[in-house]
Design a protein that fits this description.
It is a single chain. By secondary structure, the protein is an alpha+beta fold. The chain contains nine helices and six strands; from the N terminus they run βαββααβαααααββα. The strands form two sheets. A four-stranded mixed sheet has the order 2-1-5-6. It has a two-stranded antiparallel ribbon with strand order 3-4. A hairpin with a 3-residue loop joins strand 5 and strand 6. Helix 1 runs parallel beside helix 3. It is globular and about 55 Å long. The chain starts with a strand and ends with a helix.
Length: 220
């Protein structure tokens, strides 16, 4: 099982179950230290209808769920799950709902320096814990700098249209592949799991995918 197992994570930074699922995946990987993995983050737009400049959180919740109260009454389970995973989810701090295309561009660029996971985590923490507005360029630049990236370079790239088409195309391809719920984990290109699965379940799936991969490599 020496071959590296690719784990594709299709998710969005404003999806609370994706926040939890990322933590569960990290815990699952830690349970299988003998299996080398490469985690690749793929874009997904949970709310593609939100404009590039974002909208108020209240307007978003009313549009999508009918009312703020209805959303909050159904969201307690997510808040509790996040706390159980050791994550800080302060939903009342969230005042703006962003369009996440620039977040996904930033994660793509961070991958060039091997820092996609760190940047994705920082963006999620800004959104879920700190109530930061991810539609603001300087918030994204700050997140990049927090992870050791060059702020001026990121600012210049965000001001351009670089990789907008690529991110949109990849997010669309996930929808066309039938992925309607995130997070979605694709292990070794063979096993797909949807939702924030418990670490033990994910670890077992990683082991199965690695074994399948080893069989394929041996057959070839």
């Amino acid at each position: 099982m020496s071959a590296t197992l690719a784990i594709d994570v299709i998710s969005d930074v404003v999806c609370p179950w994706c926040y939890i699922g990322k933590r569960f995946l990290e815990q699952a990987i830690a349970l299988k230290p003998e299996i080398p993995v490469e985690v690749r983050f793929r874009p997904y737009f949970l709310n593609p209808w939100v404009p590039r400049e974002g909208i108020s959180r209240e307007e978003y919740l009313i549009t999508k769920f009918g009312s703020v109260e209805r959303y909050n009454s159904n969201n307690n389970r997510v808040v509790e799950a996040a706390a159980a995973a050791g994550l800080d989810y302060q939903r009342d701090r969230i005042k703006r709902q962003p369009n996440t295309i620039d977040c996904h561009r930033l994660i793509l660029w961070a991958g060039e320096a091997g820092k996609a996971a760190a940047v994705k985590q920082r963006l999620m923490k800004i959104y879920f814990s700190e109530g930061g507005d991810l539609s603001q360029t300087e918030v994204l630049v700050g997140a990049a700098m927090d992870c050791g990236l060059d702020g001026d370079e990121v600012r210049a790239r965000l001001a351009s249209q670089q990789d907008v088409d690529e991110v949109e195309r990849e997010a669309q391809s996930a929808k066309e592949a039938g992925i309607e719920g995130v997070p979605c984990f694709i292990l070794g290109g063979t096993i797909a799991l949807s939702g924030a699965q418990p670490p033990e379940y994910l670890a077992a799936a990683i082991e199965r995918a690695a074994a399948e991969q080893a069989k394929r490599v041996a057959a070839e």
